[in-house]
């Protein structure tokens, strides 16, 4: 990427690899002479004063400052490949559909041709709010129009889980790229069929495991893979959310293991680069309404990996203190922790004798994973435009489904479940 001249000028010295000489780093004689002797004696640090910062090598932004990296990209106005936006359709504008709409409506890489939802009385408000004059709004019954429109290159599916397989199948049959919310289908066989169809169609079916695009989790993964803690002995993920889904949602969600634990299972396997050979799980339903559905809202999962690593996942749908999402990786060289992220993380108050107080953590997934949701869509657009290979492969999604099914079986039957893997199932390096 070419950087902008103005920014180049700011980083004076850096690009030229200019060495700062020892002499230049010393305070100039002129300054020392101009300060009376008795004052300069008290100015104990004056001797460390270097040349003007304009003459020094400027620090580079850390690669963890993704917002600055984005700014540099926007500022440089440079791009690779096509500038044409991807003509798309969005299915479902409920909770996660709204998260995705906010990313699509403001994205110059997207031309949002259609929005489809079963609830049509919100269409006028959506159109007005997002200024979508050129987007057509359709009911679920009219969705064929989207599939038959040759302009539509890609669809984003954010509808209830029970509808995914049908929409994916129809989209692929008409040669569209598909971004689908997890899980891909309600059954393993259904998901396998979807991926087979994608292969036949020569299109990508992308499963939205958004945590793989979370900057903090990416950082932990890179450091685990770089061996910072050595061979991982234990890995723990805590995943609690404040936002209890509606009972209607839970009825078609495929159960907590497939609806929510899949995120943690995928994240742990992605960080470790291996799949478990033995799992166990226990679940409880603290909410009677969830117990009535035969589902769980509180879950513990243990995983044993072929390398000996042990994993632990804790899930709760009842977190009154906000979205509580943490990861800890422990090995012989030390420990990596991803603590809770919070808005306005710099604010700390010490009022009276209350002790230190911090701003609460993010409330729920739309805010905690905001960056991840944006990044996964950018990645999908890169795939559609031929600029990237999918970061999440079909066999990885199927492996996660297999593990979640084994965990669910363990919770129901109260026993360990062993898993075997063929070479074709294994995660990428
Ligand atoms: N990745 C994540 O973090 C995350 C978070 C929440 C939900 N999800 C997944 O997203 C999916 C949707 O969850 P949600 O919480 O947004 O549900 P929701 O009930 O809030 O929204 C679903 C929307 O789809 C619409 N709809 C139903 N059938 C449709 C059809 N055939 N065609 C078009 N629209 C239809 C509904 O009217 C509703 O507006 C689920 O599969 C869930 O597992 C993922």
Main features:
Rossmann fold; alpha/beta; binds nicotinamide-adenine-dinucleotide; Dihydrodipicolinate Reductase, domain 2; single chain; 3 domains; 17 helices; 429 residues
Can you walk me through this structure?
Helix 7 links the parallel strand 2 (110-116) and strand 3 (136-138). The chain has 3 domains: 5-76, no CATH class; 86-207, NAD(P)-binding Rossmann-like Domain (Rossmann fold, 3-Layer(aba) Sandwich); 211-425, Dihydrodipicolinate Reductase, domain 2 (2-Layer Sandwich). Helix 6 (95-105) crosses helix 16 (370-384) and helix 10 (188-201) runs antiparallel to helix 17 (394-413). The chain has helices spanning 5-10, 22-25, 29-34, 37-42, 66-76, 95-105, 123-130, 144-148, 161-173, 188-201, 215-225, 247-251, 256-272, 288-292, 365-368, 370-384, 394-413, and strands at 86-91, 110-116, 136-138, 154-157, 177-180, 205-207, 234-240, 278-284, 298-304, 310-316, 324-331, 334-338, 348-350, 356-358, 417-418. 38% of the residues lie in helices and 18% in strands. It starts with a helix and ends in an 11-residue tail after the last strand. By secondary structure, it is an alpha/beta fold. The structure holds nicotinamide-adenine-dinucleotide (NAD). The site of nicotinamide-adenine-dinucleotide has 24 residues, from helix 6 and helix 9. This is Oxidoreductase YrbE.
């Amino acid at each position: 990427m070419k950087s902008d001249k103005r920014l180049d000028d700011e980083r004076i010295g850096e690009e030229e690899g200019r060495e700062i000489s020892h002499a230049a780093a010393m305070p100039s004689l002129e300054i020392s002479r101009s300060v009376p002797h008795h004052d300069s004696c008290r100015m104990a640090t004056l001797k460390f004063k270097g040349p003007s910062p304009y003459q020094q090598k400027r620090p580079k932004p850390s690669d963890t400052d993704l917002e600055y990296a984005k700014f540099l990209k926007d500022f440089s106005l440079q791009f690779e490949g096509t500038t044409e936006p991807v003509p798309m359709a969005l299915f479902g504008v409920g909770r996660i559909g709204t998260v995705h709409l906010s990313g699509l409506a403001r994205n110059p890489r997207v031309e949002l041709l259609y929005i489809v939802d079963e609830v049509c009385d919100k269409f006028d408000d959506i159109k007005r709010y997002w200024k979508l004059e050129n987007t057509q709004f359709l009911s679920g019954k009219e969705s064929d129009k989207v599939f038959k429109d040759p302009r539509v290159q890609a669809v984003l599916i954010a509808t209830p889980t029970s509808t995914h397989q049908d929409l994916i199948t129809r989209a692929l049959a008409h040669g569209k790229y598909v971004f689908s919310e997890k899980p891909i289908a309600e059954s393993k066989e259904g998901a396998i069929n979807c991926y087979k169809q994608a292969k036949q169609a020569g299109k990508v079916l992308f499963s939205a495991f958004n945590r793989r695009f979370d900057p903090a989790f990416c950082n932990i993964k890179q450091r685990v893979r770089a061996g910072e803690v050595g061979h991982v002995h234990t890995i723990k993920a805590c995943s609690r959310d404040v936002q209890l889904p509606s009972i209607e949602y839970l009825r078609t969600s495929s159960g907590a293991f497939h609806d929510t634990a899949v995120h943690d299972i995928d994240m742990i396997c992605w960080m470790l680069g291996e799949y478990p050979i033995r799992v166990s799980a226990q679940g409880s339903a603290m909410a009677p309404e969830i117990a009535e559905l035969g589902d769980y809202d509180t879950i513990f999962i243990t995983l044993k990996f072929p390398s000996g690593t042990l994993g632990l996942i804790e899930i709760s749908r009842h977190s009154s203190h906000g979205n509580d999402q943490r990861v800890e990786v422990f090995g012989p060289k030390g420990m990596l922790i991803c603590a809770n992220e919070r808005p306005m993380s710099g604010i700390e108050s010490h009022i009276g004798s209350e002790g230190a107080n911090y701003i609460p953590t993010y409330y729920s997934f739309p805010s905690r994973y905001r960056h991840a949701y944006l990044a996964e869509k950018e990645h999908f657009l890169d795939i559609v435009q031929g600029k990237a290979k999918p970061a999440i492969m079909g066999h990885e999604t199927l492996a996660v489904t297999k593990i979640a099914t084994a965990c669910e079986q363990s919770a129901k039957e109260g026993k360990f479940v062993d898993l075997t893997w063929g070479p074709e199932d294994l995660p990428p390096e």
